[in-house]
Amino acid sequence: MSRRILMTKIVAVPLGYILNALYSFIDNYGIAIIVFTILIRLIILPLYAAQLRSTTQMQAVQPKIKEIQTKYAKDPEMMNMKLQELYKEEKISPAMGCLPLLIQLPIIWGLFGLLRNPMDYISNSDMVLAAHESFLWVKDLSQPDLWLLPILAGAATFISMKITQSSAGSGNAAAMGSMKAMQYFMPIMIVWMGRTLPAGLCLYWVISYIFQIVQTKVTQLIKKNKTDKKGKKKKSAKSV
Question: Distance between CA atoms of 94 and 51, rounded to whole angstroms?
Answer without folding.
Answer: 9
